[in-house]
Amino acid sequence: MTTGAGRPRDRRIDTALVEAATESIMRDGFPAVTIDGIVRRAGTTKPAFYRRFASIGDMIPAILAARFALSANIDEGSLRDDLLAFQREQALIFDDELVRQAMAGWLAYLSSRRGDAEVFISGFLGPRLESLSAILVRGDLRGEIETPRDPRAVLDVLVGPLLLRSVVPGFEAIDGVVVERTVETALVYVGARELARS
Questions:
Q1: Which has fewest Cβ within 10 Å: 27, 132, 141, 198?
Q2: Can you list the residues of the chain whose pLDDT is less than 50?
Q3: Average model confidence (pLDDT) for the chain?
């Protein structure tokens, strides 16, 4: 997201732009969304847009942050319960109507715009990676992890199946079974000691 010098930013315009982009995606699909359409729906101007965002892709983290809260400090007392709490939050995101409507278009858009892809990775995936890293550190400190892994690889194990189900029409639903199965896979991947004892 871009920032500008001068007068203080009007947060109401931030909100109006994010809401307008969300409504446009829901109505028309991500590929049809334009900056002209967003600013018209928001009742503002293109200069106001560009003071806040470099592009439509730059808006994606702001749209998702406005729609989905992220628990900053998940601590349910055990590695399994922490991962379940984390994964339930991710399941809500990837099963959301907006995300299902927009995900394929977002991925196509980001594939040809490396800068916007980096904004998405840092703005959306970055906080989730930090949250997951903290979970794994706590699990290691509790003595629950046999094989410490790169948190990015564990995030792949957890989020990859949700992304697949969000993008591919007719794939099995994102439900409690998928959440538990992906967490079980992550526990196996990190060599959770509870599995070794069972």
A1: 198
A2: none
A3: 88
